Amino acid sequence: MSSSRSSLAVRWTWLRRLWPAALSTTPQERLRALAGLGLGVLVTAWVSHWLAGTAGLWLVAPIGASALLVFAAPSSPLAQPWAVVGGNTLSALVGVACVSLMPDPTLAGALAVTLAFALMTVLRCLHPPGGAVALLVVLSQSHAWSFALFPVLTNSLLLVWVGVVYNSWTGHPYPHQQMAQPSVSEDNGAVSRFTRADLDTALAHYNQVLDVSPDDLIDLLRHAESAAYQRTLGELRCQDIMTPNPTVVEFGTALREAWDLMRRLNIKALPVIDKARRVVGIVTVADFLRHARLDEHTGLAGRLHSMLKPSGLVETEHAEVVGQIMTRQVRVASASRHAVDLLPLFSTAGHHHLPIIDEHQRLVGILTQTDLVKALGRAVQPPLQA
Asked: In the sheet that 279-284 helps form, which strands lie side by side, from edge to edge?
């Protein structure tokens, strides 16, 4: 029984692969494509019929497939003007050649489609309906080279002309840029996890024809990357990544005590709070070094040692407590604030430590560059390879 169920599960999993994914386009976009498709075939058929008069065939069936690509997927490399015109016309010529050289339609049809694909690939005009054009010529046993000019070339040119006008008018630039261009994010110095060269390497490894241009693909990937960034990091609050309950000192804490705390805990800043745990300042290693006259290189260790040593006097100009050397103007952030909002403070404003406060202005944590880097690392961590 279990073996039978396992077999059914395997079959069901295989059958599910046959079910196509839902289209990602909106109903409005589908309506736009439908209108363009009808208009394109109508104009192509009407003008071709008018040009043909009472002459024979004036519209080829594969033009319907070409119209689907031109109006439903105008950004596809397979739908570009050269692909439509070149692919259909060259395939018609290949079909006529195969009919002339090979009387057996079975062999001629297979050879025509194969050679048409090879020629379209070499001349960069790969167009799936072109294969149908080549097969149509063989099945109709057409020996006339003029068939490639009319109706095939004429139909293709008319369809492309309508596509250029309609797609551009409805906000879909056509022809669509296919050649590699420097992307905006590369030009303006924006940070990205991959470059165009990385994408080219991935495409070479994939080694299959994709119905999307490399530039469009890289834009899609960057939009996906941005969405993932917003999902993973954009919703993070300071309270999610801060170091809670940080080590603190008060205004009257002795310099020696504060210095020993920083050395023992290997930290570079101590928030200074009052009795209500409100931030009144912050003391950093830089504050100690500044008061020890860091700019005077000789005797720095001695001056630092002298500064940390209590004078024992009731009144003295010598700094002995944290409040005398701390930085009083302190930038703080709310625990509920989005962490991504603080990136400019750490990346360009020179901040290394930021006290985090609650709704009552009390200190609840400290956010450091290390905390932010760890959060960024988790947000952009690549998936584990299987």
From this structure: 249-250, 269-273, 279-284
Identity of the amino acid at 13: T
Q: What is the dihedral of CA 185, 196, 207, 110, to 10 degrees?
A: 70
* Block residue for tokens 């692969």: 17
The amino acid sitting at 142 is S
CB 88 within 8 A of CB 129: yes
Q: Where are the domains of the chain?
A: 25-169, 239-380
pLDDT single digits (tens) 80-107 = 999 999 999 999 999 999 999 998 999 9
The CATH architecture of the domain made up of 239-380 is Roll (3.10)
- Indicate the pairing of strand 279-284 with strand 333-334: unpaired
**Are 170 and 39 within 8 A, CB to CB?**
no
Burial of 6 (0-12, 13-18, 19+ CB in 10 A): exposed
pTM: 0.59
For the stretch 112-122, pLDDT in tens is 999 999 999 99
